[in-house]
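Batch manifest, entry 17 of 40.
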Amino acid sequence: MAWADERRSMYPDTPSVSQLSQVISQAAAPAFLLGALAAFIAVLISRLNRIIDRTVVLNGIPDHDAVRSRLKADLPRLMRRAAMLNRAIFWAVVASISVTLLVIVAFVTAFFQLQHERGVAIFFMISLGAFTISLVDFAREVRIALSEFDHYA
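Output type: structure tokens
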């Protein structure tokens, strides 16, 4: 019997329904942020795919085609755009991972009845910082996106 009492003291009591509902309600905002990040990543990947497709078309132009070979001058700009989008995708994924860790920390700390405000705040700040970096890279890519080369194949 002493063994069972000792084992019970090692594990905290299961959180009440009200404690869990409070954690779930607090996890609603990060869940919406995670959904927004997923949609944003989809937009970034779509733009990156368009750049890759355009690069393949331009690389397929033969050098002896004098009329269209001038379009190959756009390749360095496309490579810069692809690099910016690649960085934006990376930081958006970092933001998504930190939001996911935020929700995990919230539930784990509620289960063990620990203070979780600092840990959740840190993960939230990390996710917003990474999301901001991603948005800056996206804004930089958008600024150089339009060019006269984009109107020709």
